[in-house]
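INFO batch 0412 | record 1 of 1 | parsing
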Amino acid sequence: MRASAPLLLLVGVTAIWGVTFVQVQDALALYPLFAFLAVRFAISTVVLAPFAWRSVRSMPREGIVAGLGVGVLLAAAYGLQTAGLELTTVASTGFITGLYVVFTPLIALWLFGTRVPTAAWIGVVLALIGLLLLNGVPGGSTLGNALVLGNAVFQSFQIASMERFAPRYDPRALTFLQMSTCFVGFLVIALLLGELEMPEGRTVWSALIVTGVFAGALGYLIATWVQARTTAARAALVFTLEAPFAALFGVLLAEEVLGWLGWLGCGVMLAGIVLAEPAAADVLRRLVGRSRPEGATSG
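INFO prediction complete | emitting tokens
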């Protein structure tokens, strides 16, 4: 049970991310895009500050640079995803975002030479098939879908980078640096576009609180902690659950139609995760041993 606890926590995080697709889409109909992102990540930064500040101060320069760099990748991903969500459907956004499960192991292999076991590759293929079954050919806006596809590419770079850095540095500091980088970047853009204004209304504020606190600060803190104990392939497979969760909440809250193929897709993706588990665990042992400095102990 203890071995599966990180995986279960990550599943919970993806469920929260899934429901936010609907909330954010509703909020963007009432509040400017980059102002929303700036306030969202401001909330995340403030929530994390009391817990992370001491860790950030004691972090080596290399760790700070790594955190800021990964934060830029995360900001690019969220900017593209949110802009695309404003133009296309919740289901299409969830499907296309989930394509980072295909990109992530390839990027980890390309950047860091991380070997991906055969069973994990089969799991990735099943996850992709499940995503295809979930939504079929994505509909909505062509531009919106293209923006979300760009988000999937940046997310895969972010996940692969975290595979490298999460075992080396404090997860609180890494998460704080990513959230604060997103906040500063989106604040500058919102100011330049003249979008910054005080949020109003229950719809906007509920979306800001859920995304800023639970999907942002706590969600990425948990995700960073889990990624210190897993591989890019395994994390990407679990993250694919964000797509079926988004589709599920789209059906329940936004009255979108999922269909029997969509439900079948959810099952196929779960099969991919279960299949890849043992092989990914073996990679975990080799990777953590390689990444951790000599003499370091697990926390």
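INFO post-check: Confidence is low (pLDDT under 50) at residues 279-299.
INFO record closed
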